[in-house]
Structure formats: C-alpha cells, structure tokens
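BUG: 3D viewer hangs when loading the predicted structure for this chain

Environment: internal workstation, default settings.
Expected: structure renders.
Actual: progress bar stalls at 90%.

Input used:
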Amino acid sequence: MNGNALKELNSLNVQYTSNDRKSFRVFLDKKSGITKLSDLDKNKRSLLESSQDNTNLALDETILSKLRSYKILVIESKGSGGAGTSADYSFYNSVLRRLFNEYEIEHTHLQTQSDTSIREFANSVKPNTGEKYLVLFLSGDTTIFEFVNFVYTNISDVNFIPNITVLPFPHGTGNALANSIGLVNDVLCTQALFRLHVNHLPLYAISSATPLKSIQPALSCFSNNDRILFMAVASWCLHSTLVYESDKPELRSQYGSERFRIAANRILEENPVFKGRLTIHPENKSLLYHDDRWSIEDTSYDQYQNLSYFILAAVSNFEKTFKISPESSVSRDELHVLTFPHVSSETTMRLMNAAYDDGKHISDSLILYKSINAGTTLELSFTDDMCPALSIVCLDGSSWEVTGKGRMISVKSFQQSFLHYLS
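Structure tokens produced before the viewer hung:
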C-alpha cells in the first residue's frame, strides 16, 4: 500500500491517506486511555463498522506494559508500496512513530537500504539474551521470509531459541500472510498491534536432492542449506513462473504492479507444460490424474504427468479477495496441495477466476485439493530434460531454480516454537 500522509491536525490527532484513497484518522487521548481509529471515507461502508465497537481500543496499562516488555523492531521495506515516496510522509512517521512516542513505547525503526539490509537486521536478534522481540513488517511476504531464515541460520544452540512475534502490514507486492490473518489494511494492523493477541506461526521446510540456486543474490547463502523455511506458500508451474518473470528488472523497472498482468499474458500465451511426479510419504503414494479424475495410487517411477498449476499453501488468501486455499488457516500446522493438469489457457483463467468467487475453484473436477498434515512429506520430482525456466520454485515470493540431475524437492512441516504472529 503506497502511503501519503496528510499533515497532522495536532500532536494527538493524525490523518492518513493511503494510495487507494482510503483515509482514516488516529485520535489519541492519553488521559482516557482511548485510541480511536476513524474511517474518513464517506462513500464506502467502513471496514471498521463491520463489527460492534471496533473503532475504539481501550488501552489499559496492562496492554501498554506488555508492549513495553518487547524489544520492538519496525522494518520498513524501501522497495515496498508502504515506504512511500518521502520518508516524511510514510505510514511509520505519520502514525506508528507518533503512537509509540505518545505511549512511551521504545522501538527501533529500520529501513532497508540494500540487498543485505534484512540479513543485518536479523543479526541484531540475539537468541541467548532472553528478550522477546516484536517485529512489525511494513513490507511484503518475502521480507518476512528472509528475516526468518536469517534468524534461524543464526541459532547455534537449541537451548537458546529467540522468541519472535511478527505483525505484517500489507505494504508489499505479495501480502498473503497479512491477507490471510485478516489484516487487509493499516487500520486493522494498528488495532492488532494494541490488541496484542499472540498466536503460534507454523513454519514449513523445503529440502532438495540437488542444489537450489537463488535468483535473488541476497539469498544465495541459503542455496546449500539442508532446508529453507517458508510460512505462506511454496509453488511451481504457472504461479512460480509468474513470480519469477514479473520480478525481472526489465519488467519491474518499467511497469510497476502492471508487470504481473504483462507477465501473466506472456506465460498464458505460451502455456508451457510442467512435467513432474507428486508423491506423499510415508505412504509412498502418488497423486495422479487420469480418466478425468484424481486418484492416489502406489508409486512407480514412471508416473510423471503434465501439469499447469501446483502450490502448497499454508494461507487462505493470496490477495484480499483471491481465496486460493479456502480451508487453510495460518495458525494451523497444515499445508494444502492444490494442483491441476495441463489445460488450455482459457481453462486456467476460468479456474483462477473462480478463486475470486470465495474459492469455488476447489470444487472443480480438474482440481486436486488435499490437506498435508504435520506427519506427511510431499515429494516433487522433475524430469531431467526440463529447461531451467520451467524449473523455478517460489517460496513466499522468492524464486529458486532447482538444478542438476535427479531433481527432487520435499516439503514438510517444521517443528518450532520461536515464531508467533499478532491477530
């Protein structure tokens, strides 16, 4: 969300307008302990009016004391929409900073300056100090993905595990985590901050039989890791190819958010075939589409099939209204596999459009939609003759090429207790 804040009306009354022209006012009354978040959009029904007494947050000293007990980091991605065109008018400066200052809550504001910024920020988390961290991300999913993996890499002693709670603001290109929690705008995120309702955030691990080559140079240090962690989605086929193509410099620099439409049109016009084998363990069963239906059968090594779409989703909504995995819940330690065979571009678009209709695509016979619980591993094998451009997997918005001969990746739940989120 691009931010353009209007000047404050007075020291305790701030008006803020986002790039989608949605305005709200933050009114702070320290004496009464009330923070009021008021929607100023006169033409639309306010999100804040959708539930009773949702515009006021009674901030008693218990909540404020709990917030002050955290080491708070505000990480603002310079390349995201939320950073805005001017630091003076960013959401952080206009709203968050003033809220923290008025309620005497110490925090550190960090803004990315280079490809190594997130690594540097993660290095500031000290696992052996016993401190609790609350990290506000004014960014997209990939920034959180980077931070979590760098923090995990720094853990050298299982007896000293950091305690980290994240709060995602939907300021990036991809905001699946925030959208799936229900934090679809800055007002709701700010409410979640002062509600301080902490939930466990499950993680999932991907490992590869051959090297994974990071498309983003800043993440190349993870290429030889035993595992890479993700929290929202792992994908292959059209989804991962779209993310990869749209992130190329020539599209990103010239077309902004329009690059996704351009990349999608190019990919659907070509309509490539992705050939792979899907196996679940410990059952050692293959997921197969034949005779116009999906089935689960005993595995044999010649069961490669042509696919158009494949994702493993831990979240329900890639976008606010794009419900790709209706049965997914962020807090539940469970992935859902969603895939369909190679079909025409027109059929692909029909299925994707149905996801905007409250996730009705999952009822289509072309779709395989199945839960993968914490005790199950899904294995994806690639044919050796598949070209590099079709061997890209996406992890929370980051792109990785699966290289070498005998290419195979496996995905499963990663048991941990150090990561949480606010809702």
